[in-house]
Amino acid sequence: MAQHIVTTTWQENMQFISDNPSGHQVTIDTSEENGGNNSGLGPKAMMLSSLAGCSGLDVVSLLKKMRVDLADFKMVVTGELTEEHPKYYHTVHVEYHFTGADLKEDKIEKAVQLSIDKYCGVMEMFRKFATVKTSIHYHKN
User: Average pLDDT of 95-108?
Assistant: First the structure.
């Protein structure tokens, strides 16, 4: 069974440094109004970044295999938090934005759907506690 191990070490105030199994590091902090220095990513927002990164890696990999060229690709992920503590994302919307002169919409939709339904483990984890909505947007250049 595969496992990932990360080590997260307190630096000062509310700041932590967390490693990644690949050896890279990320700074975690909170806003000044919550006692931090706003010098890193917030833990909840980092979860949204992880969701986008997971699905984005799938989509780019699949589109390369399908020989689809893009001028630009970005994802906008919006998470709605519960009002009561512990606050967690109850609804998440993932918007896929593709830019290009000749976008192959059928292949793009297939790649996104494969990521959503089959490959993105982070999205599957989110589905355990949140409603996940997705949409695809095309921008011609």
Answer: 96
